[in-house]
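Hey,

Quick one before I head out. I ran the complex with manganese (II) ion overnight. Inputs first:
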Amino acid sequence: MKVDFHTHSKASDGEFAPKDLVQIALNNKVTHLALTDHDCVLGIKEAKDACVDKDITLIPGIEVSTTWRNTSIHIVGLFIDEDHEAMQELSKLQFNTRLERAIKIGEKLSKAGFENAYERTKAQAQENAIITRGNYARFLFSTGQFRSIDDAFYKYLRRGARAYVHSQWMDIKDAVEFIKRANGVAVLAHPKRYKITNTKLRELIAYFKSVGGEAMEVSSTQQRPCEREYLGELCLKNDLYASCGSDFHILESWREVGRNLDLDEKLKPIWTHPKALKYFA
Ligand code: AMP
Ligand code: MN
Ligand code: MN
Ligand code: MN
């Protein structure tokens, strides 16, 4: 068994169509792949179809944008019924917030000299895709004016940069509720990637748990051992299920689908959650 519970496709800010993502996962011998696009479930059907008669199982997922104490926090929903009305409601809500913001970012970038930034960025994604700052960073890089995608992100899109547009996302509680209504499990994504102190992180986890959150990501592909250990401790202490994922978006040598995602034996892996069982039969 080789799992990856956090990946993106062209339905949001990933580089590959869902079926091509599945092929990449297969090449890496991944047996269970969750597609967790930002705020939408558009890519799930194609990914599922691509898994038929292959040695890989698709786990329907989503990564929901929320705001907690003025910080943007991501909640992954796993094992969701993607056709459930709760997911349709959620996507509609997020799509509109996202669209407004994406257009504003586009306007700022156009003023900065990147003409028709929104249209050109949109053209690189799937129809009706969610456009995030990740899409814009890739678009900017494609103009040839930046050293890397990261460089473009830093210069124009990071908080406080010239084309940054703030967005007030939903409360974590609402995201967890949507996920649970759709029969999914709510997972706190990449807890160490928020620029908050460890004290605040512990408060975040406590809040997440108090509103029904059931799991947190402990292992990610590119991570220092001490970080993984620390997250493992927090996971145990809060009696949460442990998840793991690459957060794959594009081909990079250091972030492959399914790579380096082991979970410590002490932890309760998310695939032992009752809602996960049918995917691991
Ligand atoms: P948003 O949800 O629109 O605020 O955009 C967040 C997305 O931007 C993340 O999911 C990443 O895909 C991408 N991102 C975040 N930080 C960076 C970075 N330093 N370089 C490139 N992309 C990034
Ligand atoms: Mn992203
Ligand atoms: Mn994220
Ligand atoms: Mn992600």
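The chain is about 40% helix and 15% strand.

Talk tomorrow,
K.
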